[in-house]
Amino acid sequence: MEILEEQRALRSKLVKLGAEEQKSAEELAAAEQKTADEIRKRAEDDHQAAVDRARDLNKMLLDGLNRLQDEERDREHALEERLLKRGGDEEAIHQKRLQWIAEETREAVAAADTEEKRIAARLNGEGRARAELHSEKMRLLELEERAQQEADAAAKKARDDALSSLQGATKDAMTDPVAARAAIEQVYAARLQEARQEFGESGRGDGLTQAQLNRELELIRRQVHRQTVNDARNFRISPDELERSQEQIADSTARNAAANTRQNAGLAETTANLARSQEETDRFNQQLERRIQVIENGTRAQAERSRSTRGGLNG
Predict the structure, then answer these.
(1) Is the pTM of this model over 0.90?
(2) Which of the residues 188, 219, 259, 266 has an alpha carbon 20 to 30 A from that of 282?
(3) Considering its fold, how many domains does the chain have in total?
């Protein structure tokens, strides 16, 4: 009876372990999907923020240049009108115009230098943010891999322990006839002793002849024998049943391995998408830096022309 109870407990434990393993796999898949979604959303948000900042910066630079050109034309017209009203000649107007251009060029160069420093600070900040994002992504991947390894190891150990215990109990019941026979004889002796006490010692057998008592004891003995034979059958697990249990465990393990493979493939795809998004952001930043360089070179060239003009006038 103890072997039967142990067998039932082991079967129940095996079923429970299978359910826990399935639940653990589902929770792990949900956690991996949530982490991948968070990483992807963070990368997309950072990329969109970088694009928005670059667009705003480009618009601000263009607006500033247009405003400077408009102000320069307005000042030239106003200066010409004032000088003409005062009766000045063309040479004075020309020199005053050059003076205004030189001052505006200096202001534009100073503004360009300030903007260049601000852009450099922004780019450095974005570089630090990208580095932090990459570090966080690698840390999450490492934690996921470690959790997966620990879950796999725990599930394998629990499955191996349960299977080993079940196989051990089954092997003992199937291959140890002495132990099985001893268990049957022990149960039979206990039940026969109870019957003898009931009919021979408790007084309930008074009035029965010895032959009738013997017949009653024989009926009880046969009944006990049939019951103990049934118990002996229950002590054993057929090889087919054991093989089916092992196949079910192997199938469950294979399904979990396939699910883990699919999850790892999805995570790899997410990582590749993040890498492509990072490359696009880097290319966009490089294009922005080149455009800023072009604007800066144009501003510096204008300043050089202004200085050359002033030098010619002073000479």
Answers:
(1) no
(2) 266
(3) 1
